[in-house]
Design brief:
Pfam families: DUF218. By secondary structure, the protein is an alpha/beta fold. A 5-stranded parallel β-sheet has the order 3-2-1-4-5, with helices on both faces. The two termini are about 15 Å apart.
């Protein structure tokens, strides 16, 4: 229910969609003779749209998220958790072949880290996150993608039931059963790392963050790219607030410090019941 409500609200509140909706309301108001209201709404919405597209607003919003955690690899790694979100479920289902999206670096990094740490367990966590499509479990598609690359599927563990970041952490914890003293690496997009770390800490699983898939800084200006970054950044900030309020995250804006209040034996005493 949390996922369905969240996705429904985001469909409306997403900055790009919201601006288009406001423009439509402004034009409708003008057509109905509400010129004063429609004119003001049209001018205001257009000003915001142009500003968001021309100014590097997306970069300004994304950089605090992406720079929150440094990309540092530990000398020893016992396990690696890679979060899903690298496959375009719509095209994959329609075309019958795995189609990667802009977050494909999560997968390519997974393969590279699996080779760098040959003794580490590797978990890919990704279920069916879309609510308006036939269920496409991302883990199943990733397994087929790895086999297509000639990589042994038994080298990886697949968590295929999660639909949210919280479930990524919860179900991966059940699968990994991390022990005290183990070092687990978490791989996800840099802008998504703060929210992901907050969830893992809320479950008392301290993981070492390894952010990938950076989107900033940009050395060019594009209205489409800027608006896309605004959408991504706003989604993460809204997600941080929603997860903290609902108890799914341990902090408002998780950072690289590891507070002792969120540690119970470096993975011991892990809470794996969906009580939050």
């Amino acid at each position: 229910m949390f996922m369905i409500v969240g996705k429904a609200l985001w469909l409306i509140a997403r900055p790009g969609n919201l601006l288009v909706l406001l423009l439509a309301i402004a034009l409708l108001a003008l057509a109905l003779g509400r010129r004063r209201f429609g004119g003001r709404l049209l001018v205001g919405t257009t000003a915001v749209l142009v500003s968001a597209g021309i100014l590097p607003l997306g970069t300004w919003l994304m950089q605090p998220l992406e720079e929150r955690f440094p990309a540092v690899l530990p000398a020893r790694v016992d396990g690696i958790v890679v979060l899903g979100g690298s496959i375009d479920a719509t095209i994959t289902e329609a075309r019958g072949q795995v189609t990667l999206n802009d977050s494909a670096e999560r997968l390519t990094t997974m393969v590279a880290l699996a080779q760098r740490y040959p003794d580490a367990r590797v978990i890919f966590s990704g279920g069916a996150a879309a609510v308006d499509l036939p269920p496409v479990r991302e883990a199943d598609r990733v397994s087929a993608w790895l086999e297509g690359l000639g990589l042994a599927a038994d080298r990886f563990l697949f968590e295929r039931d999660s639909a949210t970041t919280y479930e990524n952490a919860l179900f991966s914890a059940r699968l990994a059963q991390p022990k005290a003293g183990e070092t687990w690496l978490l791989v996800t997009s840099a802008f998504h790392m703060p929210r992901a770390i907050g969830v893992f800490r809320a479950l008392d699983w301290e993981v070492a963050p390894y952010p990938v898939d950076f989107r900033t800084p940009l050395d060019f200006y594009s209205v489409f790219v800027n608006l896309t970054l605004v959408d991504l950044a706003v989604k993460e900030y809204v997600g941080l607030i929603a997860y903290r309020v609902s108890g799914r995250s341990a902090e408002w804006f998780p950072g690289p410090a590891q507070p002792s209040a969120h540690r119970k034996g470096d993975g011991g005493g892990l809470q794996t019941s969906p009580s939050r």
